[in-house]
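Model it.
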Amino acid sequence: MFRSWWLAGLMLACGLFVAVTQSEPWLAGAEFVVFAVLAVLVSPLVFPTSVTAAQAQERSARDGRPVVYWRPGCRYCLRLRRRLGRRAGRAHWVNIWRDPDGAAAVRAVTGGDETVPTVVVGGEAVVNPEPAWLLERLTP
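Modeled.
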């Protein structure tokens, strides 16, 4: 669990440190808000609820939705999530830092690396896909 939140915690700690060292209260508040927003962006909060790899594979076999393997703090995962917008909930998301089976699935696809985002759709795996590619597969 700590592994998923460490970067967000670091951002908040940096924001607090920067805010305390400022002599102007308005500047301290503004800088802390910037760091707090960054903390939210690198946290698991901006992603849909994660499921285990087994649950995602079972559900995907049933409904045909893509499985997206991701990890907190990954800028490419954040880019993909942001570009999907509300449609991100149409995929099954697996946090590889919380699910060892998910990390193993990614390593099997990538040749031993934990490169994310890795998306599996109908047996086809794509590492760091373009958001437009995944959007095509999310449309009903």
